[in-house]
Design goal:
binds 1,3-dihydroxyacetonephosphate; eight-stranded parallel beta barrel; 8 strands; globular; 11 helices; about 15% strand; single chain; alpha/beta
Length: about 250
């Protein structure tokens, strides 16, 4: 089963209209021959301008969160329909920073994921263990819970992208080794096979995220179960193009 690689940037709370437009303009020619799907998940307020900037290119614009209600009294939140209005295709859900700082739980991840799918958006559902959890040998237990609860009730798991982001590797410069990332992502794929069906598990795109950069992307992408990357810091610069062109 061949899965098309998918490299996505997560700008987090970085960039402005001007710097974002400049970066996308510079990235466009550099990524146009990519053999993978390419997306940049940008701050919500930048979406309209970044969609315009990326027009006519192979860069899709994504969001970094979506509310689970269709609409209503949720001050400060953004609905799936609002994202769709602007041509957003992907949305990151359950990033560890949202779990850590904004009270995101596996239950809210599940609600947001179902809402995104219903609206026709592709959720990028983030899972991953903290350093303490890894050191206490709890990685599989944590992933089991995040996958079981976070993906509960999904009809077609192939419509979901999973991002394995070990929390200890995010923004720390400490990447999981190729072998660690491969081993854990293979475990996630096996678990998806158990929760859904083995055949669908073979089709699900699973990304690695956590200090992935222009230097280490080739080794990670060469692993059989790693289908792509969710890139933080390196997506704020032209290095992102090098990662997108990992196979060249
Ligand atoms: P860094 O690539 O900056 O470590 O961030 C990874 C990440 O959190 C992407 O969602």
């Amino acid at each position: 089963m061949s899965r098309k690689p998918f490299i996505a940037g997560n700008w987090k709370m970085n960039m402005t209209v001007e710097s974002g437009k400049k970066l996308i303009k510079e990235l466009k020619p550099l990524v146009k021959k990519a053999n993978c799907d390419v997306a940049l998940c940008v701050p919500a307020i930048l979406i309209p301008e970044m969609v315009k900037a990326a027009k006519g290119s192979n860069i899709s614009i994504g969001a970094q969160n979506v509310h689970f209600a269709e609409k209503g009294a949720y001050t400060g939140e953004i609905s799936a329909d609002m994202l769709k209005d602007y041509g957003v295709k992907y949305v990151i859900i359950g990033h560890s920073e949202r779990r850590q700082y904004f009270g995101e739980t596996d239950e809210t991840v599940n609600k947001r994921t179902l809402t995104a799918l219903n609206a026709g958006l592709t959720p990028i559902v983030c899972v991953g263990e903290t350093l303490d959890e890894r050191e206490e040998d709890l990685t599989e237990e944590v992933l089991d819970r995040q996958l079981k609860v976070g993906l509960n009730g999904i009809e077609d798991i192939k419509k979901v992208v999973i991002a394995y982001e070990p929390v200890w590797a995010i923004g720390t410069g400490k990447t999981a080794t190729d072998e660690q990332a491969q081993e854990t992502i293979a475990y996630i794929r096996k678990k998806i096979g158990e929760l859904f069906c083995p055949k669908c598990a073979e089709e699900v795109i699973i990304q690695y995220g956590g200090s992935m950069n222009a230097g280490n992307c080739k080794g990670l992408m060469a692993q059989p179960d790693i289908d792509g990357g969710l890139i933080g810091g390196a997506s704020l610069k032209l290095d992102f193009a090098t990662i997108v062109n990992f196979d060249k």
